[in-house]
TrEMBL record:
Keyword Acyltransferase among UniProt keywords: yes
Family annotation (Gene3D superfamilies): 3.40.630.30, SCP2 sterol-binding domain
Assembly notes: Homohexamer; trimer of dimers.
Superkingdom as given in the UniProt entry: Bacteria
Stated family: Belongs to the acetyltransferase Eis family.
Keyword Nucleus: no
Active site residues according to the UniProt entry: 123 (proton donor), 414 (proton acceptor)
Official protein name in the record: UPF0256 protein
PANTHER family listed in its UniProt record: N-ACETYLTRANSFERASE EIS
Sequence segments annotated as region (Disordered): 150-170
GO MF annotations in UniProt: aminoglycoside N-acetyltransferase activity
Species this protein is from: Streptomyces tubercidicus
Domain N-acetyltransferase positions: 1-149
Length: 414
């Protein structure tokens, strides 16, 4: 078997092989783009070729930026389009492609790799760990009233008190085709301030590649503008079967703007229920409902998986919110590597280098990926038996050090 890089001339073969691996057929081409594969970077993709020259497996990567704790931006390879034809599974093709890809990413100088896992059992063995989580929130229209608590010291009626902050803006309803540049600009501001968020390169917006609101699928866009008329948030939505209004994503960096957009869609006429597809597990929207039980949580699941390709570089790239020292004994069985590192944090910056000191924690590289963005507490993985704490103070120390000011969240599909 040979694993080789692809070129632009391999696009059709790559797409056909991948669809064959998942037992699907490519959808009908859409005029003006709109196919997810129109954003593929063919110089970053791989084809696994059988001895007779037939393609039997695919693996790809996008060039993203990942927002780390402390609003630090780092390059990250977004692994995608991984598949093996049913005729060649359980023959080592996937392992060979993943090993080849990780080696290539390192050769490019990259130290972080991320993916969305189609199956949770597959990618932990390759060093990836679930790092961000998301959930769906469904609210029946007849129970959708928001009754926010009044601000401290306010004399307002508690049932109609103030929002998270005064909203002096306005909402304009547009069609998706009318506001592409606005969406791109708002999303870019959002992702730079949200840990765990990925960039959406201009090519994605221009090619209409991905899921709504990127794709050509018809969508209404509620654009929020501040008091000066500048756009600072949007909600992408559609009304489907059974009078269900589905919100693809609500993008803003301001809680008051999110509340205003939520109030807009929850107040839509001729709707039986409103579904928010991507809500962070700790988002306050559910608490803002007059009827707390009206918000039904479902599809509570992992989203972004993270792998560290260079432990010292990754740990020194993010910001930290507490001073301290931690010795990490990290095992990377897939790549056959092992290292012990002293992590020293001072004034929000970290230094990380090999050490012979006794470890505070022993952990797999996949578990380090899970705690890296702050979305999974080290103590949770200690209690689960994934991480070994070598003394009683190790767990609370690790929790305090890896804690972040804002929970990571990712809603970009790739």
């Amino acid at each position: 078997m040979e694993i080789r890089p692809t070129t632009d001339q391999d696009l059709d073969v790559f797409v056909d092989t991948l669809h064959g691996a998942f037992g699907r057929f490519p959808e009908t081409p859409t005029a003006g783009g709109g196919r997810w594969w129109s954003a593929l970077e063919m110089d970053r993709n791989l084809l696994a070729m059988a001895a007779d020259g037939r393609p039997v497996g695919t693996a790809g990567a996008y060039s993203f930026e990942l927002t780390l704790p402390g609003d630090t931006i780092a390059p990250a390879a977004g692994v995608t389009a991984v598949g093996v034809l049913p005729s060649h599974r359980r023959q080592g093709v996937l392992r060979a492609m993943m090993r080849h890809q990780l080696t290539e990413l390192r050769a490019r100088g990259e130290f972080l790799s991320v993916l969305l896992a189609s199956e949770a059992m597959i990618y932990r063995r390759f060093g990836y760990g679930p790092a961000t989580y998301t959930q769906r929130l469904t609210v029946p229209r007849h129970r959708a009233a928001l009754a926010l608590p009044r601000a401290r010291g306010s004399a307002d009626n508690p049932a109609t008190g103030s929002d998270t902050g005064p909203d002096t803006g306005s909402i304009e309803l547009l069609r998706r085709a009318e506001c592409g540049d606005i969406l791109e600009e708002i999303y870019d501001r959002y992702r730079r301030a949200q840990p765990g968020a990925l960039s959406r390169p201009h090519r994605w917006w221009a090619q209409r590649a991905g899921q709504p609101p990127l794709s050509p699928a018809p969508r209404y866009i509620a654009v929020h503008r501040d008091a000066d008329g500048l756009p600072d948030g949007y909600a992408s939505y559609s009304l489907g079967e059974h009078e269900t209004l589905t919100v693809d994503e609500t993008i803003t960096t301001d809680d008051a703007v999110f509340t205003a957009l939520a109030r807009f869609v929850l107040g839509h006429d001729l709707v039986r229920q409103v579904v928010f597809k991507h809500v962070p597990p700790d988002h306050p929207l559910r608490w803002q409902l007059a009827d707390f039980r009206a918000g039904e949580v479902s599809d509570d699941t992992d989203w972004l998986w993270v792998r560290l390709l260079d432990v010292p570089r990754a740990l020194t790239a993010r910001s930290w919110f507490m001073d301290g020292e931690l010795v990490l004994d990290v095992d990377d069985p897939f790549l056959g590597e092992h290292g012990r590192y002293l992590l020293t944090i001072r004034d929000g910056k970290a230094d990380c280098h090999p050490t012979d000191r006794e470890p505070d924690l022993s952990l797999d590289i996949s578990d380090l990926g899970s705690v890296y963005l702050g979305g999974t507490a080290p103590s949770t993985l200690i209690r689960a038996g994934h991480i070994r704490a070598h003394h009683p103070g190790a767990a609370p120390l690790a929790d305090a050090l890896f804690r972040t000011g804002r929970s990571p969240h990712c809603l970009h599909w790739f």
